[in-house]
Amino acid sequence: MIIEIPKQAVVNRIVPKDRFNFDDATKIERIRWLGKLGPTTINLPAKKIQEIEIFSIGMFEFDVGVIKEIVSKIPQEILFIINDELAIMYYQGQCISKKVENHLQIKGLSIDEVRDNFMRQLLDIEDISKPLKKQVDEIQIINGLELEIDRINAQIKRSIQTNKKQELARERYTLEQKLAKLKGE
Predict the structure, then answer these.
(1) What is the spatial distance between Cα 14 and Cα 1, in angstroms, rounded to a whole number?
(2) pLDDT score of 33
(3) What ranges do the domains of the chain cover?
(4) How many Cα atoms sit within 13 Å of 115 on the Cβ side?
(5) 56 near 32, Cβ under 8 Å?
(6) What are the φ and ψ backbone dihedral angles of 47, each rounded to 5 degrees?
(7) Confidence of residue 150 (pLDDT cuts 50, 70, 90)
(8) What is the pTM of this model?
(9) pLDDT reported for residue 133
(10) Which residues of 133-157 are buried (b: 16+ CB within 10 A; e: fewer)?
(11) Contact residues for 93 (Cβ-Cβ < 8 A; gap 6+)
(12) What's the rounded Cα separation, in Å, for the pair 15 and 64?
C-alpha cells in the first residue's frame, strides 16, 4: 500500500459500483473505501476541510471519468489510490496525479494542511512557505508556457519562410524569458 493509514482511521469497506452513474462500470474491478482522515480519527483540527476520504480503485484500464463521477457524488476531499500505484486528488477543478514509488506521508497540524501536503507530494513541491493555491497556479502557468513554446517550435520546423521563422523565434524567446523568470533561473 502506498499510504499507511492509522488504525483508528481505517474503514476498509467495499463501495458498490451501482451507487455511481458510470458510463462503463466494467472498467472498474473494485472500489474500496480504505480510510477517513478527520478530527475524530487522526485527532487533528478541521478548518475548511472536515475530512479526507481515501479510496482504492482497481481498474483494468484507467479512466479519469470514473474519478470525476465519484468526486461529483461525494462532497469531501478524496485521495484516490488507483491499482496501488497511482495517487490522484481533485484540486481546483482538475485531477492531480502521480505514480508513487514511495509512501505518501500524512503530515500537517490540521486536516487542511494534510490535504495540502498530499497535493505537494503529488506535485513534487518541497517549498511549504507559499500557499498551495499560489504554487499550483504557478505550475499551471509554467506548463502552459512550456506547451506554447513546444507549439512554436513545431511551427518553426514546418515553416519555410525565413521571416516567419524569425518572427516565431522572437515570440519563443519572449516566452522562454517569462518561463526562466517564473522558474527562478
Answers:
(1) 16
(2) 94
(3) 7-128, 134-183
(4) 25
(5) yes
(6) -105, -90
(7) very high
(8) 0.78
(9) 85
(10) eebbeeeeeeeebeeebeebeeebe
(11) none
(12) 18
